[in-house]
């Protein structure tokens, strides 16, 4: 009888721990998830950060974003490991305050006006 009570309490504690851990994990993923994303890009509206992860993503975000956000909403750009070239008009019309272009980016398209 005493053994069943102990096992019952251990099970209850284990389940409680698992539920709390799952809740913390879900909240963490929700906070870090992008609001909008597409082919090689994602946008976090809370921080105004556009992250591009492919060469195509440097321009795809413009056509794929729809009415979800305006280019001027982009304040920060993070250029991911997979990007070696910036497409034509990649960040024209945005509200970027600064951008760091890594050495691995070897091609920047000419912007048209």
Descriptive overview:
This protein has about 110 residues and is an alpha/beta fold. It folds into two domains: about 1-35; about 35-113, no CATH class. Helix content is about 35%, strand content about 15%. The chain has helices at about 1-30, 55-65, and strands spanning about 35-40, 40-45, 50, 75-80, 85, 105-110. It has a four-stranded mixed beta sheet with strand order 1-2-3-4, covered by helices on one side. The longest helix is centred in the N-terminal third of the chain and has 31 residues, at about 1-30. The radius of gyration is 22 Å and the shape is elongated.
Cα distance spanning the termini: 82 Å
Unreliable residue runs? none
| Strand composition percent | 15-25%
Largest sheet: 4 strands, mixed
Number of strands: 6
Number of domains: 2
Brief summary of the model shown:
The protein has helices at residues 2-32, 57-64, and strands at residues 36-38, 41-44, 49-52, 76-79, 85-86, 107-108. The chain is an alpha/beta fold and 113 residues long.
Keywords, please?
6 strands, 113 residues, elongated, 35% helix, 4-stranded mixed β-sheet, 2 domains, two-stranded parallel ribbon, 2 helices, alpha/beta
Q: Layout of SSEs?
A:
Blueprint: H1 2-32, E1 36-38, E2 41-44, E3 49-52, H2 57-64, E4 76-79, E5 85-86, E6 107-108
Parallel strand pairs: 3-4, 5-6
Antiparallel strand pairs: 1-2, 2-3
């Amino acid at each position: 009888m005493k053994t069943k009570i102990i096992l019952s309490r251990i099970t209850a504690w284990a389940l409680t721990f698992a539920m709390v851990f799952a809740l913390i994990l879900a909240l963490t993923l929700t906070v870090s998830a992008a609001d909008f994303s597409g082919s090689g890009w994602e946008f976090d509206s809370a921080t105004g950060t556009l992250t591009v992860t492919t060469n195509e993503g440097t321009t795809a975000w413009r056509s794929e974003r729809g009415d979800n956000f305006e280019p001027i909403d982009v304040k920060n750009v993070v250029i991911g490991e997979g990007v070696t070239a910036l497409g034509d008009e990649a960040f024209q019309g945005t509200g970027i305050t600064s951008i760091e272009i890594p050495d691995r980016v070897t091609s920047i398209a000419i912007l048209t006006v």
